[in-house]
Design brief:
Number of helices: 15
Order of helices and strands: HHHHHHHHHHHHHHH
Number of strands: 0
Largest sheet: none
Radius of gyration: 28 Å
Length: about 280
Amino acid sequence: MTVPGPVLARVAEQLGHVAAVRGALLDRDALPGLSRLALVRQISKDLAACSLVSGAIQPGRIERLMRDGVDGATSRIGEKEAGAGTDGFVRGLLGQDRINARLLLHAVINGHGLFFAQCLAVVSGMPLEKIFTLLENGARVALNALFRQCGMDGAQSSLLARLVLFARSCDLASDWASRHYVVGALIEELIIEHDGDIPECLEEIFHYLDEQNLVLARAAARGVMPCFSQLAGQERVLPVADRELSNVALGRELERQAQMRDPQVTGASGQLVLPAA
């Protein structure tokens, strides 16, 4: 049975506090983006208030985890809505005053370019096609002017312009290492430009980038060893006979080291020798 989106939105508004109802609603593709985001926010509040979570994680870390989770959900939902050619989700965010520099940074870093462009188009009032042209080919001066038209100050505009220029040469949609590289390069340029004294207007964004740099570094490192193992191939694997010889040699070496530590542990035949009572 197909339930219209407005009906699902009303159910979410009235029964969104019930966990079972939330799960059923989130499984519905027809659920409007703003209603889906409202359910995600409710889930984050419930998780933060859960005694099991609050007892195991520090309050500051819980707040950061929930914030990043909501930002990620907002960006992914917005990317899907923008891909469908609708801007109602972004206009709803603007009406709730939820479009900020941190959310835009998150969208670019995670490769959600459609959502990012639509946010800029709605906030600035410029056509979406012109936004795409500026993001793909615009010079830094033009990008600064675009972000200033969106209401950002000079420091934030310059930061986002740099991020866009970095993002043009990287696959941020699926490559964790590229995301880590871009964030690290952005942090380095900020430190160099301001000689280590980050302006007050950029402190919150800088701390956010620093947190994301650590998260992305861990995520990128998880794929390193599997990648090496795939590249190694079978030519580096020992034959069965060599592996058996290696295991025998390893056993003898361990036995020799144990005997050196305590000569009474093993006798000449390698049998266990118990000390006399």
